[in-house]
Amino acid sequence: MVDVPMRAHGRRVFFQQGTVLKLVVVLILLLLIVFPLIRTVVFTFQPDTIGAWGDVLQGRLSKNLFYKPLGNTLLIGAIVSTGCVLLGGFLAWLVVMTNVPFRRTIGVMATLPFMIPSFAAALAWGTLFRNDRVGGQIGWIQGLGFDVPDWLAWGIVPTLIVLTLHYFSLAFTIIAAALATVNSDLVEAAQIAGAKGRRILMGIILPVTTPALVAAGSLCFAGAVSNFATPALLGLPVRMQTLSTRLFGMIEVGQVGRGYVIGILLVIISGAFLWAGNRFISGRRSYATITGKGGHAKRFDLRAARWPLFCVAMVFLLASTVVPTIVLFASSFAPSSANLFSGWTTHYWIGTSNPSFAQGIPGILYNADITRALVVTLALGVCVAFLGMMIGLLVSYTTARYRDGWLSAAITQFSFLPLLVPGIAFGAAYIAYLGAPIGPFPALYGTFALLVIAGTAYLLPFSVQTGRAVIQQVSGELEESARITGAGFLRRLASITVPLAIRGLSAGGILIFVKIIRDLSLVVLLFTPTMPVMSVLAYRYASEGFAQFANAITVVILVISIVATLLASRLQAKSQPWLKD
Amino acid sequence: MLEIKNLTKRFGTFEAVKDVSISVPDGAFLVLLGPSGCGKSTLLRMLAGLEQASSGQIIFDDQVVSDGDKNWSVDPAKRNSGLVFQSYALWPHMSVRGNVEWPLKVMNMPTAERKSRTDEVLTLLDIHALADRYPNEISGGQQQRVAIARTIAPKPGVLLFDEPLSNLDAKLRVEMRTELMRLHRATGATTVYVTHDQIEAMTMATHVAVINEGRVQQFGAPSDLVDHPETAFVATFVGTPPNNIIPVKKQGDGVSAGGHVMAMEPPNDDCLAMYRAEMLNIVDAPTPRTISMELVETSAIAGRMMVTGLSDTLRLTAIVDRLDTVRVGDTVHFELPHQPQSWFSLTGERIE
User: Fold this and answer.
1) Are A349 and A331 in contact (CB under 8 A)?
2) Looking at CA atoms only, how far is residue A168 from chain B in angstroms?
3) Given B93, B106, B187, which is nearest A486 (Cβ)?
4) Which are the contacts of B283, defined by CB distance < 8 A and separation ≥ 6?
5) Cross-chain Cβ contact A487/B74 below 8 Å
6) pLDDT band for position B268 (50/70/90)?
7) Do A478 and B91 touch (CB under 8 A)?
8) B187: nearest CA in chain A?
């Protein structure tokens, strides 16, 4: 059977396998992520902008420009991350380790807040608690005749509460995952040794899950200090500034140099905490990865505390998801926030322009701005999801198959860089990067392309993470066996890797879609009236006092997010004969 | 003819394969035998073209397919070779037929010819009835057959196997061994087969290369390895049960072996004595030629008894007729014959 002659001659091997691919990927990442950040830094060191550093750090204005916002930002970071770890940890403990009633329901509800846009809860808070301090509509509670004090209506306290109720679900996810890996044998061994509940918690469970607690804390810190929507909606009206609202304000009024300096400082602060958290975790042995038979045969018996603890958990869970959703929904029909549940009108949805109503702004259906924003937002979501998954797949493929060498290390570092950069600072960097013409290329400010490129770059860490999970399911040998048959790189990708990974890829794509359509902080600086997106429109309406429109748009975003998520699970369930058991 | 000349593979500073030279005629069944991590799979991957050699040449049928010195390589697909992976690497989203057919599609075989070739190999491997099933719907042994069918469908001149039987249970392994040898006769393809199981090597090979730490310890016919091991490593790695190696040290007229002084004439002051298991005997009481050990294992084999004793780090295995009176944990006395089968230096080389 040795009847097939040798078909071709060989060739010189100039590069190690994968070197060309690695170079292409590095180039993409440099263009998307590294250059914008470098460009921003370089911009602040130009002769006419270098003074901005002095203004921000030690000038006459520095107290207002930087130090007071810095104080607020750090306060928010410290309190929110502490609150999130306590609340998320408490819920994770209830769900994973105890016999609290409706464990699964609590578990599902605790992951929901992170699925809704962070400005939804802030808008809902305003709808409920606004008082008459800054004029405009009053909230529902004031409308009932109660007097809402300023500290509860505006500023730091509501900001802290809203952010904690948003980010705790991130902490919950991380801590619950860690607790779930604590082998029940560990707990039983402690029980046999004679330890009681409290002792087991302090002596076994807490030390074992410390890395997860630190990770949760540092991620919540980074999220809270870079959040823009909540302090902007609840703090700006009473002149409470954080670094992100300051950055936004500076760029809005054209003091770009100062804005960028504040942005760079914000990146350094949130990056430093993430780095420190990471250092702490990698410095010690990770216990949480010890796997065993798992399965918590025995749960802590809460006895009489079962129902009281259930009620405590439900208060937080309802306050973080159900109440905001109901309030936003009701508000989009109510004539004013003060009368949330009476005299409903459909004007904000399907009304035509009427000078006696909301200054003549037509309802969502007839509002050209909003419908255009809807189209732009959906197109943006689809483009970013598609482009993001393509690049994410390419990056994770490269690092998974050709792991060695400094190029691979650089690829990994670059692709996760945007995690350290708050969205609003990333948006600012992209204005610095593509806002002005580069050589023969025109300025992209105000174009759809800028939104797509910036969105793709910003969400790349998530696409790479998803891509990596997907690639790891497709073993290297499946691809090598295709290589031996003579199939080229693209053919292997199209016939082997992508068909096997399509479920993960589509789920990942939808996740990115949902993330970008509900994002505010990245797009708020890239927004132009010709290229409007839903979230920024909602923010603008809210800050101009048209709460109903803002809330109605937010409801639309919520609905799209939920539908997309359901679609993702449908897609995943699509029957694939090779996956049958 | 398949020729490997001075082949070396380095990963950074680590040398996985060191200066390997082997040559076998067309139609040979070459087994690369060695413990895990010895470099045998790396060698196979270089033959397949998945890794580029750091130096040395690989020659298939007088054509150089890989030259590490010139950094020159023929694409895996153009080497006229096929590889069966340890994990089988069946594409899970393709049916059995699809798995076998796809490589033919890639090489642009005309449709009619492709169909008939696919049917032919499916029948050859007795899996035609499973053609429309998916890999996760068939058993491990059947998956193995699909992997082989997929590899031989393009009629490669060189067939490469990476520990193909290690994922099968013992009974199936014996069946597949027979099947693979039948297939080797049917196709006539030169076969290179990687395994850590010396029984597979002894039963299937026409040529065996025993590899340890990246080096070929001995290359020859299976019977050569058993009759005339070149190194102490080969002596202990090949054969069932493995040969016994006892370090001896010259002392007065005799030697100290396993803590006992006995009469012996070693070629050097310090060396290793090799005894086949059937050369050792178990006796009731200590004599000047015995080593006393704790009995740790007994096992019935083909009507005889395999007995293993342990004393400090020395482990001896003997094959004896019967042994009814002692239990595991008792002390037994292993009697050594006057001359060992062969001598090895302390570094493992054979002393003639």
Assistant:
1) no
2) 40
3) B106
4) B290, B333, B335
5) no
6) confident
7) yes
8) A1
Are residues A337 and A547 in contact, defined by beta-carbon separation less than 8 angstroms?
Answer: yes
Question: How far apart are the CA of A389 and the nearest CA of chain B, in angstroms?
Answer: 21
Cα separation, A460 vs A384, in Å, equals 10
State how beta strands B14-24 and B244-251 pair.
unpaired
A553: tokens are: 């748009």
Contacts (Cβ under 8 Å, ≥6 apart) of B215: B18, B19, B20
Assign B150 a pLDDT band (cuts: 50, 70, 90): very high
DSSP A256-321: HHHHHHHHHHHHHHHHHHHHHHHHHHHHS---TT---S---SS-B--GGGHHHHHHHHHHHHIIII
Taking alpha carbons only, the member of B329, B331, B220 closest to residue B285 is B331
Q: Mean pLDDT across chain A, nearest whole number?
A: 83
Mean pLDDT for the stretch of residues B119-135 = 92
Average pLDDT estimate for B115-133: 93
Q: Is the pLDDT of residue B37 over 90?
A: no
Q: Under 8 Å CB-to-CB from B249, ≥6 apart: which residues? A: B255, B256, B257, B269, B270
- B-chain CB neighbours of A6 within 8 Å are 60-61, 63, 74, 78-80
The answer to whether B312 and B296 are in contact (CB under 8 A) is no
Of B83, B87, B134, the CB nearest to A577: B134
User: Does residue A288 carry a pLDDT above 60?
Assistant: no
- Residue A392 token pair: 């994410």
Nearest CA in chain B to A1: B187
Closest residue on chain A to B155 (Cα): A1
- Give me the residue label for tokens 């490269």: A398
How deeply is B242 buried, as exposed, middle or buried, from its count of CB atoms within 10 A (0-12, 13-18, 19+)? Answer: middle
The residues pairing with A58 across neighbouring beta strands, listed in sequence order, are: none
Task: Answer whether A16-38+365-573 and A61-289+301-341 agree in fold.
Answer: yes
Element at B342 (helix H, strand E): strand B342-344
Written as six digits, the tokens of A357 are 């109503």
Q: Which residue has the tokens 């803590």?
A: B259
For residue A579, pLDDT over 50 is answered with: no
C-alpha to C-alpha distance for A509 and A467, rounded to whole angstroms: 10
CATH hierarchy code of domain B2-237: 3.40.50.300
Q: What is the CATH number of domain B244-351?
A: 2.40.50.100
Across the interface, do A485 and B91 touch by the CB < 8 Å criterion?
Answer: no
Residues of B in contact with A495 (CB under 8 A): 102
Q: Count contacts between A and B (CB, < 8 Å).
A: 122
CATH class of A16-38+365-573: mainly alpha
* CATH superfamily of domain region A61-289+301-341: MetI-like (1.10.3720.10)
Rounded to a whole number, what is the distance in Å from the CA of B115 to chain A's nearest CA? Answer: 17
Tell the residue number behind the tokens 């039948």, with chain if given. Answer: B182
**Does B133 contact A at CB distance below 8 Å?**
no
The pLDDT value given to residue A361: 75
Residue B181 has a CB neighbour count (10 Å cut-off) of 14
pTM of the shown model: 0.77
Domain ranges (residues) in chain B: 2-237, 244-351
The answer, yes or no, to whether residue A472 has pLDDT greater than 80, is no
Phi, psi (deg, nearest 5) at residue B133: -80, 165
CA gap A375, A381 in Å, rounded: 10
